[in-house]
Amino acid sequence: MDWGKWIEHYQALGIKSDRICRDGIFDDSEWGKVEKKILFVMKEVNKWEDGNLKDLFIDGPKYQMWHTVSRWAAGILYNFPKYEKIDTLDIMKEVIRKIASINLKKISGGPASNMSAINAYAYTDRELLLEQIDEIQPNIIVACGTFDSVIWLLGLEINPDNPYEKPIFDKKRNILVVPWRHPARVNNKNTYNELKEMIAKIA
Question: What residues contact 193, with CB distance under 8 A and at least 6 apart?
């Protein structure tokens, strides 16, 4: 990703560019090896200005939230084996290097997310966000508490009466988009099995 474009974009808006936290593919070499290329679309980072998300995962996932993401990714990558088989630090260290994650709001936030601000940033930054997604080239997107924004960002064809009913296929980009929850404060085994049931709705 050309972060110079983001810097210019925010400078034009009068926003200090050193507030950006970079994100994307965590390990390019591992990303190139996997068939299922999973992109997790998140909200924002918590108080990490001028950071880089991939620096968190050099030695495996940090913080409970990223342990949860690793378990979900392991389920998708390995066709959802029993929870106990993927609930190990070795599996989490392995899997975290095989995924990508971006935030809709690149500017660091606080402990509580302001969805109005996140959605406003996503709209303002939509061209660069789409460019970033196109460069990453995922074939699966897991929208973690961000599906409402992802619907209009990707122009998804959804059932307006029940948009969270099942995964949606983005025909333009050949991406399966999974409406899902944020990984903070979840019951890991239950949500792992619920994600398995959600993915099973593809057939």
Answer: 83
C-beta neighbour count of 198 within 10 angstroms = 18
SS3 annotation, 133-182:
HHHHCCCEEEEECCHHHHHHHHCCCCCCCCCCCCCEEECCCCEEEEEECC
What CATH number should be reported for the domain whose range is 21-200?
A: 3.40.470
Q: Is 126 exposed, middle or buried (0-12, 13-18, 19+ CB in 10 A)?
A: middle
8 Å CB contact between 22 and 49: no
Question: Which is it for strands 100-103 and 38-42: parallel, antiparallel or unpaired?
Answer: parallel
CA end-to-end distance (rounded Å), the chain = 34
Give the angle subtended at the CA of 180 by the CAs of 125 and 140, to the nearest 5°. Answer: 70
3-state helix, strand, coil in the chain (%, to 5): 45, 15, 40
Neighbours of 202 (CB within 10 A): 11
pLDDT in tens, 33-90: 999 999 999 999 887 778 898 887 777 777 889 999 999 999 999 999 999 999 999 9
